[in-house]
Design brief:
Elements (H helix, E strand, L loop, with lengths): L12 E6 L2 E6 H4 L3 E6 L7 H11 L1 H6 L2 E7 L3 H10 L10 E3 L4 H5 L3 E2 L4 E2 L1 E6 L5 E7 L7 H16 L27
């Protein structure tokens, strides 16, 4: 296996359900700001609505950080709309729901299960240049947490802005950081 960290988000153009309409979203649309690609197995399932609702509840915080969220599954944009219209949890979603009908994005990000043709729970954060800075893949029975993702995005943004510093475990904005160097070796 090779790492996806610091690789570029692949070129793509897919249909999406967003803002009550169908729209084509491409890689070019995602550049210029931080982006979360939030892969999930399928519409009308069980853990997925809890995760998308959690992301929807935190969406304003993502936007405050200059981050756009893209939910991605191999379902169609029509399925996304039907799910949005029929589920109280999914009706809260204001971010684009991408329809990866061919599995291209899921495969490119390394989350496509070829047997089920569904994505594993993959979370990827790309910087404004489209380079992947955070990657997490969970088995499908393990839900994710938007608050922890927000914390990691804040750390990634801090590191991008302050290249000589790194964020230790549990770092939060305003907390102490570290400046790697020989003086720190064996002192932590």
């Amino acid at each position: 296996m090779k790492t996806i960290i610091n690789t570029s988000v692949p070129d793509f153009a897919v249909e999406a359900y967003t803002d009550g309409q169908f729209k084509t979203i491409s890689r070019a649309d995602t550049l210029g700001r931080w982006a979360v690609y939030f892969f999930y197995p399928a519409d009308f399932t069980f853990v997925c609505p809890t995760e998308l609702e959690d992301m929807a509840d935190a969406y304003e915080k993502f936007k405050e950080l200059g981050v756009e969220v893209y939910a991605v599954s191999t379902d169609s944009q029509f399925s996304h709309k039907a799910w949005h219209d029929s589920s109280a949890a999914i009706s809260k979603v204001k971010f684009p729901m991408l329809a990866d009908k061919t599995g291209y994005l899921s495969e490119a990000f390394g989350v496509l299960d070829p047997e089920s043709f569904m994505a594993y729970r993959g979370t990827f954060v790309a910087n404004p240049e489209g380079k992947i800075k955070i990657a997490e893949i969970n088995d499908n029975g393990i839900g994710r947490n938007a608050d922890e993702l927000l914390r990691r995005i804040e750390a990634a943004q801090f590191v991008a802005e302050h290249g000589d510093q790194v964020c230790p475990a549990r770092w939060r904005p305003g907390a102490s950081t570290l400046k790697p160097g020989i003086d720190l070796v064996g002192k932590i």
